[in-house]
Amino acid sequence: MALPQPTAPFTAEDYLRWEAGQPDKHEYYHGETFAMGGASRRHVTISGNVFSALDEALEGSPCRAYMADMKVQAAADEAYFYPDVLVTCDPADHRADQFMRAPTLIVEVLSHATAAYDRGEKFAAYRRIPSLRDFVLIDPDLRRIEHYRRSQDERWELQDIEPEQALVLESLEVSIPWQKVFRNAD
């Protein structure tokens, strides 16, 4: 009987080459890949609403919004993630094909399957991206917005965005009304 042979770790470079040829999306974290499941209608609607509001508000600025299929590198954690929406103001990112390195804002729309991971390991990795100023979690079921903002002294502060309150992203000088985030997501 043959013994199982140890396999070499799946490096980040291996992942990037492999992922480019895959029909479905996969995230990468410490040598492991994780298949990304399909999103619900509400998830897609909310992501689209946020992207649209950001895209319009950032017109004429050096910042751009990206959605769904653009990866973010969390280099300190040897990780690549697909946030639902991200904004970067870095000119090098605007020329990137595979992944962004310097996001200013990351938005994740929660699902039952990913909520704990998005709040835990993924947010921990995102916090170590030096350029990141804002991290937003949106819960479509509870219609809740949680805005984490990096303060001047590098602490992460949470603000719950209540209904009828705007999501104010000071780092981008953008404000998105709560109603616009959840528009058509009933």
TrEMBL record:
InterPro entries registered for this protein in UniProt: Nuclease_put_TT1808 (IPR012296), Restrct_endonuc-II-like (IPR011335), Uma2 (IPR008538)
Putative restriction endonuclease domain boundaries: 13-172
Domain of life: Bacteria
Membrane-spanning residues: none
Gene3D superfamilies per record: tt1808, chain A
Annotated protein name in UniProt: Putative restriction endonuclease domain-containing protein
Organism from which the protein derives: Thauera phenylacetica B4P
